[in-house]
Amino acid sequence: MSFQASVSKLQPPVRDLVLTATRDAKELVGRTEADEKEVIGWIDKTSQGNLVTENNLKDLDTILIPKTYLATNYLTAADIALYGTLHPIVAKLQSSEYYAVPSVTRYFDHVQAENIVRTSAGEAFKVILLDIKNAPAPERKVEAPKKKEKAPKAAATPDAPAMPTEPATPASEPADKGQKKEKKEKKKDAAAAEGGKDTGKKAGGKAATKAPAADEGEPVPSMIDLRVGHIVDIMKHPDADGLYVEQIDIGEETGPRTVVSGLVNYIPIDQMRDKYLVAVCNLKPANMRGVKSFAMVLCATSKEGKEGGIELIQPPPGSKPGDRIYFEGAEFENAIPLTQLNPKKKIFETIQPGFITLDTKEAAWVNPVTKVVHKIRSEKGVCVAPTLVGASLS
Questions:
Q1: pLDDT tens figures, 349-371
Q2: SS3 of residue 249 by DSSP
Q3: What CATH number is attached to the domain comprising 241?
Q4: Residues near 203 by beta carbon (within 8 Å), at least 6 away in sequence
Q5: 128 lies in the same domain as 20
Q6: Which cellular component, as a GO term, is one annotated location (predicted)?
């Protein structure tokens, strides 16, 4: 089927919008033959009513979770067709209704703000002001179960032999001070007993490698949970001129995480859209001017300071959202990161001064004691900064 034939099946107002937009912007049809085929396919689904149903936007919301654009990684006629079809439906929704389909809301608001859409839209497609600012914060359902798992471990096995693994799991405070003191003494005794044992014989040494990843001992890089992320949506913070609010897909079933980054004055928004990056995923969530941020974007800052430039650290080619990023070295590569970094222990702040980009622009952590270089990588290759050498990472 040709592009014109697929567009002709759209409802008249939507068809006219698509034809107007593509008249002077031929790239909207698709930059390659493969892209054009995708565009035609999605337009056909839209015209058949397979994507948009007034009484059920949930299926479309699921489709749009990982997508910035519908058919390709740039705006096409397929997005304009879907936007036009959604417009009368979104116009009728109350805020509680469009909050229930956040991916549809995010996508619709993003497409309606595109210049080509605004210049092509007539009276039938006026801007719909969506109160995204007051949207309820997304629920992070992954943390609560993990907290529940920790409590039983701390309260289990009162006898000393099981206690060496207990420091790895924070325990809830006992109500009775006497019990607390007794428990402390048991831990000390168990630790002392453990010190006299040959720990190398324990399950191939696995018990020893789990302890650092359980918030004990000196901070090490492998405590930090680094993963590949993909920006699927981005906007300026409604209440802070220097902040972006991003939706970053890191491969979780719960959908993209909301992340706030102070990059407005350093990286243009067009250079942030659709980017793959490295995300720090186990920082404690923080409120940033009224928006809760659930991760941090890892960036390189020029050795001359912020004025010298800031760049996103790039994962290796072929990376997918959620790919594990780790530090080279036998002591780090197979270690399990902490579920959440304890802000009081300043783990990230202790490790961060050793983050740098090498002469090859590769990202690495340099051990301040041994001076050994541990490159930051995934199975697909090493992470890099686009241009900065000797840059600090944060």
A1: 888 989 999 999 999 999 988 88
A2: strand
A3: 2.40.50.140
A4: none
A5: yes
A6: methionyl glutamyl tRNA synthetase complex
| pLDDT tens digits, 80-137 | 999 999 999 888 888 888 788 888 888 888 899 888 988 888 888 988 888 765 666 5
Contact status, residue 286 vs residue 293, Cβ threshold 8 Å: yes
- Residue 334: give the domain boundaries: 221-393
In a domain, 194, yes or no: no
Q: Report the chain (394 residues): mean pLDDT per 10 consecutive residues.
A: 91 92 89 91 89 81 84 90 91 84 86 88 86 60 49 45 38 45 49 42 40 66 94 91 93 92 92 94 90 94 88 94 93 89 87 92 92 93 94 92
Looking at the structure of the chain, the number of domains it has is 2
Query: What phi and psi values does residue 379 have, to the nearest 5 degrees?
Result: -65, -20
Segment (H or E) for 5? helix 3-7
Final residue before a domain boundary, out of 80, 112, 134: 134
Closest Cα to residue 118, out of 155, 148, 80, 86? 80
DSSP 320-376: -TT-EEEESSHHHHTPPPPSS--GGGTHHHHHGGGEEE-TT-BEEEE-TTT--EEEE
- The first and second tokens of residue 345, run together, are 């222990």
Contacts of 151 (CB under 8 A, 6+ apart): 171, 172
The two beta strands, 355-357 and 363-366, are antiparallel
- In the chain, % of residues over pLDDT 70: 78
Tokens matching residue 260: 């706030």
Within-domain flag for 309: yes
Which residue among 101, 134, 167 closes a domain?
134
- pTM, whole model, 2 decimals? 0.49
For 220, the 3-state DSSP assignment is: coil
Task: Give me the percent of the chain exceeding a pLDDT of 90.
Answer: 44
373 and 232 together in one domain: yes
Name the token pair of 49. Answer: 């009513």
- The tokens describing 82, both together, are 């879907």
Q: 387 Cβ partners below 8 Å, 6+ apart?
A: 309, 311, 361
